[in-house]
Design a protein that fits this description.
- This protein has a six-stranded mixed sheet with strand order 7-6-8-5-9-11.
- The protein has twelve helices and eleven strands.
- By secondary structure, the protein is an alpha/beta fold.
- It starts with a helix and ends with a helix.
Amino acid sequence: MRIDRRATLAAAAGLVAAPQVARGQEIRRWRMATSWPKNLPGPGFSAQRIADRIGALSGGRIAVQVFAANELVPAFSVEEAVGNATIELGHSAAFFGMGREPASAFFTSVPFGLTPVEHQAWILEGGGQALWDESAARFGYKPLMGGNTGVSMGGWFRRELHAADDLKGLKIRMAGLGAELFQRLGATALVVPPGDIYPALERGAIDAAEFTSPGADIQLTLWRAAPFYYAPGFNKPNGSSELIVNRKLWDGLDSELKGVIEAAALVEQTVALAEIERLNMDALAQMVAGHGVKLRAFPQDLLQLARRHAGELQQDLAGRSPMAAKVAQSYAAFQARIAPWTRVSVHAALGAREV
């Protein structure tokens, strides 16, 4: 089903009055489990805002209570819990579900892939949402974009990197296709829940960690254990979160309440990207000036090797399931079509600005 974005945005902006709960009308009380620590800047903020917006736009007909990771279900079990109706809603990242369906990676981020705005264009205008719905249907949930943490940093490292060989044997916290890419570069990638990253770094269980971008990373205080902060985030150039609704529950809603949920999620795309840019600029300045964070660029030989492996990784992923093949083809075709425009617009404008 194609989202009527003009109608949903108008409703979310308050241009259309939200209906009020009539006496005796059912109030749906839903729980939203998340993959994030409580009040985590970025995705944690997005989850709470979506819940609040659903309540406001529905006129109180849907009341959503948000739970942090591990309060109801483990951080990486949100999709499963929503799909089997243990809970009604979830806020997570699609690539946490790669083990069940490899295609899931494309709906969060792909190394050297689409940027946040390009990704949003693919989902909303390039057929991505229909493929996402198809991929998620057999697992029992309806997916929607639920915010975005923007372009990620490359990660926090205990020691400085001078060449690609410095990754060999290094243990790094990373999720999604980025994790597989770093393994091809010689590192050992481990999936660690966000709330456990700092303890793992502190006790030496990992040597490096990537989460998202400065605005969210600052709350995790990772610099205390790993002071070298690397860019660019070639492993995760987009940080799309997902809002998921139990499929049977979704199918039982009338069109008005479906529109409310779609509006709540769609508006969060704009709000979250604006917020994370502000948080990122402030957090990066604070960490470098006040916490001794050492900002570094990845060595050129590492980037070149990573780019080559990333292309091979996408081809491998496409062969892991029929769904992955369909999604990979759509994603690659869209990136090829949009790249020339990005090159002469955003890329050229930024290059000119720095001259």
